[in-house]
C-alpha cells in the first residue's frame, strides 16, 4: 500500500508506524465497511438494523458521491445483483461499475464536470416516486464532487468561495454551513427532491465526531444551520466571497429564499441514514496491529482538530510523558489519534498539507526518540500528492531550515527532500487523518 515503504522503514519503530497506517487504511476500505453493514436475504435488504422489503419497490436506484463512493458502489452492486435498477455516482478516481453509471469529478474545488454529473444524478432523484428505493452513498469529498449551484450562482462563485474557505483554515463544519446554503443538493435538499421515495443513506464518515449533517454537507440529513449562520462564518474568519455569494446569503437571511429543510421536516419521514464506517474503525485496526507487534496501544482520540502545527505539540508531550514516567502507557507503546486538522495558509507557493505540517512540527518539538507519522486516509494530504509523512528527531537535523519551511507552509518540500513523505496514491477510502506516535522501550 505504501509505495516507498522500503525507504521509510529505517528502524523497527518506523516499521510498526507504517504497519499501523496500512492497517488503518485497509480497515476503512469502503467495500469492506459496506459488506459488513449490508445483507440481502431473499427480498429482504438489511442495512445496519433496518430492513427493506424489495418487493415493495418497482425500482431500486443508487446515487451518491465522494472519494470512497466507488467502493461502496461496487459492494452494493455485488450484494444486490439484478435487484439494482441503475443509478449515478460522482467519484474522484475512475471506477469499474456494472449497473450504476460513474462519473469522474474534481476535488477539492468543484468543476464543470462535477456540476454536469451532479445534474445527471439529480435527474434520477427527481424521477423517484413512492415506489422507489433510493440508496444514497455518501463519503468524504462529496461536498466538492456533488456540485449544484443554487439560484443564480455560478460554478466560479462556488470555486472562489471554497478556495478562500480552505485557505482560511476554516473548520470543516463551518465550511459546510456555507456550502449548504450555496447548493441545490446539500443540507437535506437531496431528501427534499427525492420525496416521497424511500431513501437509505450509507455514509462513510470523514468528519470529527461523525455529525451526519456535516458528512458531504448532509444532502440526506436535516440541516440545523441557516443562511445567517453561513454569513457569520464568513464574517468570523474574514472571508471575502464573490459579491453574488454574499447577496445570495443575505437574500436567504432576509427570508427571500427557502431555507434548507430542518429537523422535523416531513421530507425526512421516509429517510434513514446509516453510518457504515468512520475514523474509529481505522484506529481500532491500527491498535490491533500495534499489539500484535509487541507494542502497547493507546487510542487518545478520534476527534483531533485544530491548527496542525499546534495540535502536534500536546501529542508529542504525551509521548515524552510515556517515555519518562510510563504514564499514560508504558513503552514500548503506540499512541494513536485521528480527526481533521487544518492549516491556515500564510506562506506563498509552499507544498504540503496538515499531516505534513503536524509531523514536521512534532519532530521539531519532540525531545525524545519517538517516531511521529500522520496521513490522510484518502492518500492525499491537503492538495499534495502524498498521504503524509513520518519523522523523528534525525529528520530535522537542519532545524533552522525546518522551522523556516514550517512557517512558510512548505513542510512538504522539507520532508520530501529528507525522504520522509509517505506515498500511497489515492486509496479509495476517506475517514479523516490517522496519527501514529511510536514510543520505544526506554531500556533499549
From TrEMBL:
Superkingdom: Archaea
GO cellular component, one term: cytoplasm
Boundaries of every MOFRL-associated domain copy: 17-250
InterPro entries, alphabetized: GK-like_C_sf, GK_N_sf, MOFRL, MOFRL_assoc_dom, MOFRL_protein
Annotated Pfam families: DUF4147, MOFRL
GO molecular function: glycerate kinase activity
Positions of the MOFRL domain: 334-433
Entry protein name: DUF4147 domain-containing protein
Organism of derivation: Haloarcula limicola
Lineage of producing organism: Archaea, Methanobacteriati, Methanobacteriota, Stenosarchaea group, Halobacteria
Amino acid at each position: 500500500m505504501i509505495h516507498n515503504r522500503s525507504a521509510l522503514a529505517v528502524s523497527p519503530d518506523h516499521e510498526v508506524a507504517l504497519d499501523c497506517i496500512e492497517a488503518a487504511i485497509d480497515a476503512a476500505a469502503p467495500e469492506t465497511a459496506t459488506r459488513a453493514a449490508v445483507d440481502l436475504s431473499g427480498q429482504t435488504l438489511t442495512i445496519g438494523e433496518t430492513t427493506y422489503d424489495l418487493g415493495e419497490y418497482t425500482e431500486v436506484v443508487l446515487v451518491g458521491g465522494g472519494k470512497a463512493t466507488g467502493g461502496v458502489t461496487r459492494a452494493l452492486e455485488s450484494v444486490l445483483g439484478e435487484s439494482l435498477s441503475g443509478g449515478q455516482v460522482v467519484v474522484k478516481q475512475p471506477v469499474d461499475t456494472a449497473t450504476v453509471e460513474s462519473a469522474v469529478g474534481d476535488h477539492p474545488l468543484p468543476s464543470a464536470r462535477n456540476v454536469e454529473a451532479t445534474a445527471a444524478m439529480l435527474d434520477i432523484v427527481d424521477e423517484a416516486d413512492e415506489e422507489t428505493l433510493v440508496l444514497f452513498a455518501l463519503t468524504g469529498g462529496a461536498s466538492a464532487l456533488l456540485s449544484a449551484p443554487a439560484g443564480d450562482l455560478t460554478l466560479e462563485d462556488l470555486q472562489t468561495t471554497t478556495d478562500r474557505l480552505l485557505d482560511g483554515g476554516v473548520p470543516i463544519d463551518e465550511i459546510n454551513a456555507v456550502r449548504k446554503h450555496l447548493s441545490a443538493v446539500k443540507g437535506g435538499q437531496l431528501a427534499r427532491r427525492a420525496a416521497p421515495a424511500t431513501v437509505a443513506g450509507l455514509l462513510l464518515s470523514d468528519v470529527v465526531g461523525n455529525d451526519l449533517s456535516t458528512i458531504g454537507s448532509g444532502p440526506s440529513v436535516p440541516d440545523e444551520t441557516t443562511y445567517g449562520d453561513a454569513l457569520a462564518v464568513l464574517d468570523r474568519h474574514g472571508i471575502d466571497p464573490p459579491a453574488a455569494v454574499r447577496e445570495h446569503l443575505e437574500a436567504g437571511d432576509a427570508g427571500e429564499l427557502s431555507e434548507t429543510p430542518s429537523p422535523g421536516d416531513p421530507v425526512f419521514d421516509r429517510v434513514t441514514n446509516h453510518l457504515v464506517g468512520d475514523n474509529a474503525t481505522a484506529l481500532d485496526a491500527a491498535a490491533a496491529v500495534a499489539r500484535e507487534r509487541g507494542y502497547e496501544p493507546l487510542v487518545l482520540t478520534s476527534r483531533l482538530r485544530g491548527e496542525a502545527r499546534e495540535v502536534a505539540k500536546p501529542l508529542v508531550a504525551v509521548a515524552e510523558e510515556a517515555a519518562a514516567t510510563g504514564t499514560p502507557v508504558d513503552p514500548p507503546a503506540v499512541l494513536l489519534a485521528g480527526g481533521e486538522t487544518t492549516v491556515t495558509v500564510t506562506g506563498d507557493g509552499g507544498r504540503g498539507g496538515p499531516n505534513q505540517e503536524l509531523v514536521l512540527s512534532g519532530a521539531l518539538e519532540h525531545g525524545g526518540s519517538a517516531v511521529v507519522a500522520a496521513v490522510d486516509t484518502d492518500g492525499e494530504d491537503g492538495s499534495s500528492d502524498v498521504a503524509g509523512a513520518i519523522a523523528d528527531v534525525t529528520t530535522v537535523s537542519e532545524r533552522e531550515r525546518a522551522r523556516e519551511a514550517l512557517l512558510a507552509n512548505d513542510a512538504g518540500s522539507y520532508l520530501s527532500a529528507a525522504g520522509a513523505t509517505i506515498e500511497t496514491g489515492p486509496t479509495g477510502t476517506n475517514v479523516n487523518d490517522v496519527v501514529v506516535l511510536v514510543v520505544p522501550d526506554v531500556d533499549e
